[in-house]
Amino acid sequence: MSTISNLSPYDRPPASIRTLYKFYQKLPPEALKTNPHIIDFQSGPEDLQRHRLKQISAISYHLVNSQCAEFDSDFAKANNVTNNDVPVYEYADLPGNQYDWTRKVYPAAGTSQFPGSLAKLTTSFFPKMQPEAAIVNVYTPGDALGIHRDVSEESDNGLVSVSLGCDGIFLAGLELSDGSIKHVVVRLRSGDAVYMSGRARFAWHGVPQILSGTCPSWLKDWPASSDVGNPETSRTNNFESWRGWMASKRVNLNIRQVQV
Q: Is the CB of residue 190 less than 8 Å from the CB of residue 165?
């Protein structure tokens, strides 16, 4: 099994995974809805996918609501996040620092403190990793994230990826010793979280498509307040100019542990 120390962020993805990426990048929206190889948890896994998916646990909705309330009490008062436990699935077929994108390294010194509230929220659901750095990717339909691996860190603990806004098609794959590949394609919707650990920690992955018109209605005007007529709502005054911005955006928050 590969270790993070002998993998390079400059490596080129295998040709077979690049071909898969281009295939899903060119699929029209209607074909994305019906493709049997794309896992969509909102509509439920297809029969073809069920033997590869296993629910390994569930996160209590009490924990989700309490932690979200602690993270943002104003939002929690206006919205009950969920009344259902959140299932955690394993796909069985896949075996605060400032990142320097040019050199593909983290700085040795002078790092900033990772936000404590976000770290606590993350470790409440993913306790086997310590949040130390986060990358925020903002997409508009027509954008894409190329195939890559996250191997600039010293730690090979799991990566946490959270999606907000418009749906995105997520592809992850590994090349096996015989040259074949194992891959998974998931339609990530707003609120979905991916945890890449074990062999999947080193998987090539990317986002070939962002789907327009798929942002949840309740999120389209965020961070402007929905309580427009209330003069006591500070968010209305502070963020009104952002009203409607999220309707055509996908925001991805990727959290990782850097040090061993």
A: yes
Determine the Cα–Cα distance for residues 60 and 155; give it in Å rounded to an integer. 28
Contacts of 232 (CB under 8 A, 6+ apart): none
Q: Do residues 122 and 133 lie in contact, with contact meaning Cβ atoms separated by under 8 Å?
A: no
Report the candidate in 167, 168, 134 with the shortest Cα–Cα distance to residue 150: 134
- pLDDT value of position 55: 76
Mean pLDDT over each residue of the chain, to the nearest integer: 81
For residue 234, pLDDT beyond 50 = no
| Beta bridge partner(s), residue 256 | 133
Contacts of 2 (CB under 8 A, 6+ apart): 202
Which carries the bigger pLDDT value, residue 142 or residue 1?
A: 142
Q: How far is 199 from 158, CA to CA, in rounded Å?
A: 10
Which 3 state secondary structure label does DSSP give 57?
A: strand
Count the Cβ atoms, other than its own, within 10 Å of residue 168. Answer: 26
